[in-house]
């Protein structure tokens, strides 16, 4: 800071020594370049490079890490998909949105290639029950039950994909349908029988998994520690024929006898269809004997995933079939799990009528993937507020950058501090995502950066030119993060193809905005006669601002200095804001008129002679008065109390004083 100190600093040839000196020096921190403080700020802090994902097996946590998966190309990821017998609900939206966010983080933030596959269950008891319901209602008049089931499954699968598209959820790299993998399912059942891990029921011919054989061979069962003692729960969500055939309550069906039109031929075995659990194990074998990531809802841990692990271990002869499990928490409504089977749900289509897809994705981002979430107006309002915070920041900052000087000022202390905040936010976001995909913490850090930047723009911009490069760096970073989280479209083609049109539109709007501002300035400058003659032009300028441009998605705002600024925005939001402003303006006018009316009435009252004041203003309330005009009896003729008369005298004295003042002024 002083020549003495500066000359002393030049003596240190060792860079680390110099940095250490600057960090420990008595100089005010604002006088030491901010990058110095960033270097080795915490000598004992190790840079996080491992993504810690709680492995939801009972044994111990494991590390799902960028380092661990660097040699895996691609990461093999299997996700349990829907049973397509009805429309999807907001519980599904939370589930699949959450998985989509995690997948995008792995692929686009940690830059790890994923081969993401998902099943579609298009054959099970719920679908068959739906066929029977439709037949009773006279719907889906197909020649066979099998064709009716196929039509229903196709109808609701198409509806499911439309919902996913509306939520901007990436499609899997590979879609696996049960009915298209019957051969693979039967092959797996055959091998399990051959190896002794399955047996045929004596009465029905259904085929069951032999849990005791698995345990005797040294494999672990009940990986999640959720096995129950209730025999009903061991049925695993299936209406199993002949459960008395099972050797153990833990055994589950692999192939269920079904001689109806829904059944499939199985050489050497009874006609039937797959059990619930075998489908996923067979279809996921497309990824090989080992899967890196397996995901699904928390309710699938037991019995579905528990039994998946059991039969896959036996089939592949491995004790480490899945490397990492991801289970998404429930979405509750009215205190209960949102579920189609209990009719306790809000469909995705209904949900999207109430809230934009961005808001629904924000809701998913605001909660840890494993947490249960309670669907409510307050929950969604919190998401609305958070989405609005970032949207308004992007709109405002874009406008500031567009209209700013091309000459960037020398960074002052506020700019340096904001740049430091940007760096800290990047570290915080990375650390949060490395810590078990902690998206709520990452989002909080980003929101704090926006609030910090807003204060900078509001306070610093008053006296000092804003650092436009810094503002752009922040906006670009936040945009990149929201693109990673899935808030932006996955456009195809060179980015310049999209940007070119946008830049052209911006240039046209700049020119039009300036032209309109000049015309409006000319129309409003001059005497009253000139302004009156120019009224149609002023009206036209207001009309294009309040109606034409908003419908095109452009918000134009006139500034006190005669200039104007503009920004692209959702047309509905602009028009709603304009409508709200008009309502507020009408309300202000109404209040103004009411205030003027009260003032007029007050002025008229002040001109009333004091002796006639109570007789006029309070007509009908009193029947007798004294010589000064003060009431002595009420309307019924009853004499007023002394205290009441005293109060009325004070009121008359006040009126008399005001009356005299008005007369004096006039």
SSE order and pairing:
Blueprint: H1 3-9, H2 15-24, H3 34-38, E1 52-53, E2 62-63, H4 66-69, E3 75-79, H5 90-109, E4 114-120, H6 125-137, H7 145-166, E5 174-177, H8 182-194, E6 198-200, E7 207-209, H9 211-216, E8 253-257, E9 264-266, E10 269-274, H10 276-283, E11 291-297, H11 301-316, E12 322-328, E13 331-333, E14 336-337, H12 348-354, H13 357-365, E15 373-374, H14 377-403, H15 413-434, H16 439-463, H17 468-484, H18 495-524, H19 528-533, H20 535-551, E16 554-558, E17 564-568, H21 571-606, H22 613-617, E18 622-625, E19 631-634, H23 642-665
Parallel strand pairs: 3-4, 3-11, 4-5, 11-12, 13-15
Antiparallel strand pairs: 1-2, 6-7, 7-8, 8-10, 9-10, 13-14, 16-17, 18-19
Helix pairs in contact: 5-13, 6-7, 8-10, 10-11, 13-14, 14-17, 15-16, 18-20, 20-21
């Amino acid at each position: 800071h002083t020549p003495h100190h500066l000359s002393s600093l030049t003596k240190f040839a060792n860079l680390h020594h110099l940095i250490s000196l600057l960090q420990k020096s008595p100089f005010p921190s604002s006088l030491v370049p901010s990058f110095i403080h960033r270097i080795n700020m915490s000598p004992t802090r190790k840079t996080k490079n491992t993504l810690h994902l709680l492995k939801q097996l009972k044994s111990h946590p494991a590390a799902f890490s960028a380092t661990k998966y660097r040699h895996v190309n691609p990461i093999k990821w299997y996700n349990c998909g829907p049973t397509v017998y009805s429309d999807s609900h907001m519980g599904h939206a939370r589930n699949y949105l959450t998985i989509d966010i995690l997948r995008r983080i792995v692929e686009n933030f940690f830059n790890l290639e994923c081969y993401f596959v998902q099943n579609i269950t298009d054959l099970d008891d719920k679908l068959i029950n739906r066929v029977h319901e439709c037949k009773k209602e006279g719907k889906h008049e197909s020649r066979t039950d099998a064709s009716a089931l196929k039509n229903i499954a196709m109808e609701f699968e198409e509806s499911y994909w439309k919902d996913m598209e509306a939520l901007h959820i990436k499609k899997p790299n590979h879609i696996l349908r049960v009915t298209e993998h019957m051969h693979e399912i039967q092959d797996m059942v055959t091998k399990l029988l051959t190896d002794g891990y399955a047996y045929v029921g004596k009465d029905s011919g259904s085929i069951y998994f032999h849990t005791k054989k698995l345990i005797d061979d040294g494999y672990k069962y009940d990986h999640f520690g959720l096995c129950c003692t209730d025999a009903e729960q061991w049925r695993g969500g299936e209406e199993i024929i002949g459960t008395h055939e099972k050797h153990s309550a833990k055994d589950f069906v692999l192939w269920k006898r079904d001689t109806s039109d829904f059944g499939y031929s199985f050489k050497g075995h009874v006609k039937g269809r797959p059990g619930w659990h075998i489908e996923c194990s067979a279809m996921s074998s497309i990824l090989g004997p080992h899967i890196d990531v397996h995901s699904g809802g928390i309710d699938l841990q037991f019995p579905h995933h528990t039994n998946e692990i059991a039969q896959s271990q036996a089939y592949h002869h491995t004790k480490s079939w899945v490397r990492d499990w991801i289970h998404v928490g429930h979405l509750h409504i009215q205190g209960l799990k949102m579920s189609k089977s209990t009719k306790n749900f809000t469909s995705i289509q209904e949900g999207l009528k109430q809230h934009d897809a961005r808001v629904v994705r924000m809701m998913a981002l605001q909660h840890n993937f494993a947490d249960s979430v309670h669907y409510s107006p307050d929950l969604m309002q919190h998401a609305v507020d958070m989405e609005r915070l970032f949207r308004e920041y992007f709109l405002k900052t874009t406008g500031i950058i567009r209209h700013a000087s091309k000459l960037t000022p020398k960074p002052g202390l506020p700019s340096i501090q904001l740049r430091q905040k940007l760096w800290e936010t990047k570290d915080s976001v990375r650390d949060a995502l490395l810590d078990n995909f902690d998206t709520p913490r990452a989002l909080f850090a980003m929101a704090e950066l926006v609030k910090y930047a807003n204060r900078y723009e509001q306070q610093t911009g008053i006296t000092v030119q804003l650092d436009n490069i810094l503002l752009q760096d922040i906006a670009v970073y936040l945009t990149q993060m929201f693109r990673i989280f899935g808030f932006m479209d996955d456009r195809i083609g060179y980015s310049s193809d999209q940007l070119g049109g946008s830049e052209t539109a911006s240039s046209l709007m700049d020119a039009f905005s300036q032209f309109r501002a000049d015309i409006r300035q000319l129309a409003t400058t001059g005497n009253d006669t000139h302004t009156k003659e120019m009224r149609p032009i002023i009206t036209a300028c207001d009309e294009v601002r309040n109606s034409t441009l908003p419908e095109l998605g452009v918000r134009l705002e006139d500034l006190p200095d005669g200039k104007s600024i503009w920004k692209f925005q959702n047309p509905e939001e602009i028009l709603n804001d304009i409508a709200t402003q008009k309502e507020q303006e009408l309300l202000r006018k109404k209040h103004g008129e009411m205030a003027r009316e009260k003032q007029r009435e007050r002025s008229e009252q002040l001109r009333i002679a004091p002796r006639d004041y109570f007789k006029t203003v309070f007509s009908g309330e009193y029947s007798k008065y004294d010589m000064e005009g003060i009431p002595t009896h009420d309307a019924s003729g009853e004499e007023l109390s002394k205290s009441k008369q005293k109060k009325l005298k004070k009121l008359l004295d006040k009126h008399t004083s005001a009356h005299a003042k008005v007369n004096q002024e006039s």
